[in-house]
UniProtKB/TrEMBL annotation:
GO terms for cellular component: extracellular region. The gene is Avd_2. Homotetramer. This is Avidin. Keywords: Biotin, Disulfide bond, Glycoprotein, Secreted, Signal. It holds the Pfam family Avidin. It comes from Zapornia atra (Henderson crake). It is found in: Secreted. Forms a strong non-covalent specific complex with biotin.
Length: 135
């Protein structure tokens, strides 16, 4: 096989969908969502725990929105490279806490995406009000 054939074969291998799937998600770094919120995750330690900060662009408050700390854990990554994770944000401007759970994916172009679900619990005065405390 000539040099051109080897280069073409290599190019096709690099562009194949299987190659992108081999890329692994890395939670560390800066993440932005479609609403304009920013999250920064520090390096994961050997057990998969991490910390960071979250600056939400969306809040139901008149108070100044402040950057808030987060603590989380990633499931030990599998060979597939699409780890599940969870983290808690302790809001610095409200009497509430939010928990997020999700999974990291890499598309065929190498773009990493976090798919998450969240629950927010705000402080209420009595158990009678607990029904309206979780969103």
């Amino acid at each position: 096989m000539g040099t051109l054939g080897v280069c073409l074969l290599l190019a096709l291998a690099l562009l194949s969908p299987g190659t992108a799937a081999a890329r692994k998600c890395d939670l560390q770094g800066l993440w932005r969502n479609e609403l304009g919120s920013n999250m920064t995750i520090s390096a994961l330690d050997a057990s998969g725990t991490f910390s960071g900060s979250y600056h939400t662009a969306v809040a139901a408050t008149n108070k100044q929105i402040l950057v808030s700390p987060l603590q989380g854990a990633q499931q030990h990554p599998s060979a597939k490279g699409r780890p599940t994770f969870g983290f808690t944000v302790q809001w610095q401007f409200a009497d509430s806490t939010t928990v997020f759970v999700g999974q990291c994916f890499v598309n065929r172009h190498g773009k990493e995406t976090l798919e998450t679900t969240w629950l927010l619990r705000e402080e209420v005065l009595s158990p009678r009000d607990a029904w309206k405390a979780t969103r």
